[in-house]
Structures are given as structure tokens and as C-alpha cells.
Write a structure and sequence with these properties.
Blueprint (H helix, E strand, L loop, with lengths): L1 E15 L3 E3 L2 E3 L3 E3 L7 H13 L5 H4 L13 H13 L3 E10 L9 H8 L10 E6 L5 H4 L3 E12 L2
Parallel strand pairs: 5-6
Antiparallel strand pairs: 1-4, 1-7, 2-3, 5-7
Helix pairs in contact: 1-3
The chain binds magnesium ion.
The site of magnesium ion (MG) has 5 residues, from strand 1 and helix 1.
């Protein structure tokens, strides 16, 4: 059994009047994330962790933010595609562990719904999807509610 670990990071600006998609669900919020796709920063970090573990470059390499095909795209599509690309190389996802940093809204009540949305896209159990959230203690761009960060580590395995 060969196992590999990967890490992912993403950031998107926040702006009033935009929708906030995080972890595959839409949240009620004063500000939403700005991006070429639906700007789901958590899914983007997960994709990069998985691609990194498999040494398959990054999300921008496969789904360029200059490509009109991905404009306004539901990021769940990217995660499903990344899972498919890894499985073509024999990799199966073991678990992921993520952290979001943002001031608002409170993320904890929404974590079960996020896990439920994300686990099937990666063909893993909800128990293998860990999502955590913290504020940035009002420091920096996250503290000023100008942006949201997501971090993820992923473990993948294959018979080799
Ligand atoms: Mg992104």
C-alpha cells in the first residue's frame, strides 16, 4: 500500500451583495466570496490538497480561471472531477481535514451539511471529512472581513 499526503490553501475576497458558497452549500451571509467560479474556497483548497497528494499540479492548472467553461461553475463539479482523475491513477481518498478562517458567519452549525455535501463527491464517508473553523481574531484581511481562507490536508492511498 502506497500512501501520500497533500496540502491545499485558497483565499477569496469577500464583497457585499455576493452569494457565499462554502463546502458545497450556500450560506446566509452579508458578504459573499468573489471568484471566477462560485468561489467556494473550501472546495478549492480540498481539490489542491488532493491534487498535491497525487502530484498532479493544482486546480488552476486543470480548471483555469480564464476559461469561460468554468465561469460561475458549481465547485462541486471540480471536486468530483479531481476525485475521478485520482481514481484513474489508482488513488482512493482516505480522509481530509480542513480549516476555514473567517469572521462571519458562524460556520459550526453548517458543518454537518458541508460534510454531507462533500463526502459523496470524494466517495468517502462523512466520518472521513473533517471541517473546522476559526475566526482570525479580527486581525488582517480576514479580521476586517475582506477575505476568507481555507486550508486542507488530504491522505490518499493505492495498492502498489
Ligand atoms: Mg479558489
Amino acid at each position: 500500500m502506497k500512501i501520500r499526503v497533500g496540502m491545499g490553501f485558497d483565499v477569496h475576497p469577500l464583497q457585499a451583495g455576493r452569494d457565499l458558497y462554502l463546502g458545497g452549500i450556500k450560506l446566509e451571509a452579508e458578504k459573499g466570496a468573489v471568484g471566477h467560479s462560485d468561489a467556494d474556497v473550501l472546495i478549492h483548497a480540498i481539490c489542491d490538497a488532493l491534487l498535491g497528494a497525487a502530484n498532479m499540479r493544482d486546480i488552476g492548472f486543470h480548471f483555469a480561471n480564464t476559461d469561460n467553461r468554468w465561469k460561475g461553475m458549481d465547485s462541486k463539479f471540480f471536486l468530483k472531477e479531481v476525485t475521478r482523475m485520482l481514481s484513474e491513477k489508482g488513488w482512493s481518498i482516505q480522509n481530509i481535514d480542513c480549516t476555514l478562517t473567517l469572521e462571519k458567519p458562524k460556520i459550526n452549525p453548517h458543518i454537518p451539511a458541508m460534510k454531507k455535501a462533500l463526502a459523496p463527491l470524494m466517495n468517502i464517508a462523512e466520518d472521513d471529512v473533517s471541517i473546522k473553523a476559526t475566526t482570525n481574531e479580527k486581525l488582517g484581511y480576514v479580521g476586517r472581513e475582506e477575505g476568507v481562507n481555507a486550508y486542507c490536508v488530504a491522505l490518499i492511498a493505492k495498492n502498489a
